Amino acid sequence: MKSLKKKLAGILAMTMLVGAAASAAPTTSPKTKPVAEAQTAVAVESVTVNTAADGTATIAKVDTKKKKVTVPTTVTVKGVEYSVTSIAKGAFKGLKKNAVISINTTKSLKVAKKAFKGNTKKVTIKVNKKMSKKELKKFKKALKKAGFQGKVKKALK
User: Is the pLDDT confidence value at 153 over 60?
Assistant: First the structure.
């Protein structure tokens, strides 16, 4: 009787083991994020950006025919998201007289010299209301060095 119980217990254990292995869910490998690559002159909406391998983007050129230009906080190129950190030389060159540039970031951007070459005093830059006074002061100073003559307003949400 004891040997019969042992055999039945062994058969039951084997059945449970084989049944559990057959119904186990297949394992999936973790999805890998696309790797950031350095790209040059990629057009996103009305803005052309240069991307770097470290995940940053630089505004290279904007559409000068538009009266309203929006500089994005992040740019997605080929499935990789880049954060905009700077404005290149000549990016806003020859912008319309009454143009409004919207920069919706709370951090100041690095601005290259002569980024606003040839613009009038009627160009306005609107920044995020949540930008700190320190960051705004730093951004205004960088704009002045870049040749910007217009107004900077805290107006965006």
Answer: yes
Domain that holds residue 147: 39-156
Question: Is the residue at 140 inside a domain?
Answer: yes
Contact 106, 127 (CB under 8 A): no
CATH number at residue 89: 3.80.10
Task: Name the domain count of the chain.
Answer: 1
Alpha-carbon distance of 87 to 80, in angstroms, equals 20
Q: Which tens digits make up the pLDDT trace of 33-81?
A: 555 566 665 666 778 888 888 889 999 988 888 888 888 888 888 888 8
| 112 lies in some domain | yes
Residue 128 lies in a domain: yes
| Positive/negative CA dihedral, 14, 16, 17, 19 | positive
* Position 136 confidence tier, pLDDT thresholds 50, 70, 90: very high
Residue whose tokens read 């470290």: 54
- What pLDDT, on the 0 to 100 scale, is given for residue 135? 92
**Does residue 5 sit within a domain?**
no
How distant is the alpha carbon of residue 74 from its chain centre? 2
Q: Do you know the residue count of the chain?
A: 157
